[in-house]
Amino acid sequence: PVLIVGTGHEADQLIRRLQHDTVTPMEPVGLLAFKDCHVGERIHNVPILGLFSDLETILQTLEARQIKPRRLIIPQESLGLGPAIDELLVTARRLNLPTLRPSVGLS
């Protein structure tokens, strides 16, 4: 299981790719949003679980449901969100959650 950062076009394309990829066993279990107005929505049936700043709480909630994300995938379009991404990376590092930045060709 993986979490995806962002709710834009690249996140959409990444979800599609992961859901149809039988070779790479990465199941998207949730997304993190930059804006509160997206929380609670779904993209290709993958829930937007909270804001970037909610990462620790989201991980605790998922783990209580026996879901342990192995990676935090950060599409290129989300990297330009400045301090919010910087804080997210610090939190992911503190929680020992590896991050992955897919190449443009991946999506």
Please provide a written account of the structure.
With 107 residues, this protein is an alpha/beta fold. The protein has helices at 9-20, 55-64, 83-94; strands at 2-5, 28-33, 42-43, 46-51, 71-73, 99-100. Strands 3-4-2-1-5-6 form a six-stranded mixed beta sheet. The longest helix has 12 residues, at 9-20. The chain starts with a strand and ends in a 7-residue tail after the last strand.
Order of helices and strands: EHEEEHEHE
If strands are numbered along the chain, what order do they take across the biggest sheet?
3-4-2-1-5-6
Morphology: globular
What is the number of strand segments?
Answer: 6
Q: Could you describe the largest sheet, including whether it forms a barrel?
A: 6 strands, mixed
Mean pLDDT: 90
Distance between the termini: 18 Å
Ranges where pLDDT stays below 50 over 5 or more residues in a row are: none
